[in-house]
Amino acid sequence: MWCLKGDQDLCVYILPNQKKSFGKSQSDIKLEGDATVSGLHAVISVESTRESDAQYKCVISNVSKYGTVVVRDEEKKKLSANEKFSLRPGDIVQFGQKYTFVALCHLFVIVRSGLNEEDTERLRDIADYLGGRLSETWDNSCTHLTVAESVLFTTKLACALASAKPIVTIMYWEAVNIAIKESKELPKIEDFLPRVKEEWLKVCSRLFLPNEKRKTLFKGLSFVHFCAKQYFTYAQLITAAGGKSCVYPTKRPLTPRDLTARNAIVIQQPANDSSQLTQVIAVDYPIIYCKLQAVKRRIVSDTEIPLAILYCTTKMYCNPKFDFATFVKLKTQIFSPSDMIIVEDTQEVDNAAKKQIKRNTIPETCDSQNNIVSTKMYFTDESEQRDQQSQNSLKESKLGSVCKSERNQENKKVKGNEIQKKDKRKEEPQRTGANWYERYLNQEFTNEILRKDIPCGKRFTKKPIMIPEKILKVDDFVL
Questions:
Q1: Contact (CB, 8 A) for 100 and 94
Q2: Which of 37, 240, 274, 456 sits 20 to 30 Å CA-CA off 355?
Q3: Mind listing the pLDDT tens digit for each residue in 214-227?
Q4: Dihedral sign (CA 28, 13, 135, 188)
């Protein structure tokens, strides 16, 4: 289908095997108010062709004495009387001095997913009317994916997302028919977006809008499958997002360093497909798993591939270094009683708990030493109550003196131990160099040590020596 878009949102649609005439009076499209426009100025037709990839071509025929001008790549061409000229998308057609139109071509290769028989027949009729084509499978030539209003997250849907192609409901094509009849612009895609049927997948419908960033989401990444069926399921999807994929084992053997490379994504073997598990894979799979665990990487589930494309990110999905267990643990530690998000520090909580226990243990030990058990007492006479209070005060004074003497003895022992430790530190030579922190290894926290010889109190963190990671090349993927 071709369209000539003019001023004031005027869109002239020309369907396959149709003609539209332009002129002042004897025409389909009236061009009034310009003396240089003839009664019948030009005729534009859409004809079938086999010469190019386009299914139809747009031909303009000039029938005016003043001529028609076509601007292509900033070069003007004036058509003589009865001259025919094939238009290209983007050409500017000028009738007379006032009227200009831009030639646009709309190709429709529509793929359906999740439609019932009635909606499928409606879609087929609309595609034939527009000069489009209805396809059962997704490929690079597809332009639209048509789904039901509530859709499952299928491979076709993921391919359309990775290819940055529109995903619409069948109501979109009904609106296209109305726009053609009223010579208006085509409807907006965002007004006809579906919703996801899966309840566990919380997705906003606007995520289905075309995003050019998805075309390069997997650029530079290499996916390794252990199942041929799984490979053929996701190969087209990975390629559409700019990545590469292969089936293990390849003709050119992949070493453990290849599989632990920075850009290597090892896909998990399907648990329900034991027929694809060869002897080589059965032996190598546990070894590869251990090698990945040694470098703190993981085997990625195949379900993460469409999720990464949906959310257009590889920070969480298809990231071998992302630990879902740690992520879930951190999420459980975050709670929001109000508008603020408070993250509990387990280290500080433990220390506070220990301090609280120490404060409570002192009176309990004193009570236990004197075998005094606190109970509720009831009095019937005021004199008995006074006598009992005086006896309790005497007991408490004696108990306080005993506890105080015990505390003094304990403090003397602690001070004596501290003096002995200081004397030993003075006798020991100061350690310097790379092993300065060895004396702190017996402490509770060794990953982050406070250097006391630096006045500013700067903290240093021990970091392991990182070996440069290998980058898996496309040449390694020889099937």
A1: yes
A2: 456
A3: 999 999 999 999 99
A4: negative
